[in-house]
Design goal:
Largest sheet: 8 strands, antiparallel, barrel
Distance between the termini: 64 Å
Helix content: under 10%
Order of helices and strands: HEEEEEEEE
Shape: globular
Structural class: mainly beta
Strand content: over 45%
Length: about 160
């Protein structure tokens, strides 16, 4: 004789119970995620070359970014905005929207690609804002009409 909560696992009534248990257990497991672009980064190279200026990028988990270019203590450039990513394609895609640049309000979209690895981020975006047709790079190689950054974690 079985109690009220016992179910024969081979009966058709057992499937919903087993499925619910599997989903419940799976939902408590940590998600497996690869490296992320979220964090603070500095450019090791810009368009394939080392630069004297410090290019500092920050990406937050809430979809905001900022970039500051410094030459010593002097800020040469400052921008911020929002971003979205699509990691279902290779290379991963990013849309960077500039909402503020050197103090001016903007709404410029730049289409790009990225690859995040442990401690490193390769970021490439178009130099032309608001393209009628999104111009995503097909590779992460340095090429005309794109800015390419080889970034390392800024610790």
């Amino acid at each position: 004789s079985r109690g009220p909560l016992e179910v024969d696992m081979y009966s058709p009534r057992a499937f919903p119970v087993l499925a619910a248990l599997v989903l419940l257990c799976a939902s408590t497991l940590p998600a497996e995620e690869g490296p992320s672009l979220v964090g603070s980064w500095k450019a090791a190279k810009y368009d394939g070359e080392a630069k004297d200026e410090a290019y500092l990028w920050t990406f937050s988990a809430d979809g905001k970014w900022s970039c500051v270019v410094k030459d010593g203590d002097d800020t040469e450039y400052q921008a911020e905005g929002t971003y979205t990513t699509d990691t279902s394609v290779t290379p991963n895609r990013i849309v960077v929207t500039v909402t503020k640049e050197d103090g001016d309000q903007k709404n410029d979209k730049y289409y790009g690609a990225f690859r995040a690895e442990k401690g490193a981020l390769l970021l490439k975006h178009s130099t032309k804002a608001n393209a009628e047709t999104p111009d995503y790079p097909r590779t992460l190689d340095v090429e005309d009409d794109f800015d390419t950054y080889e970034l390392v974690e800024n610790k």
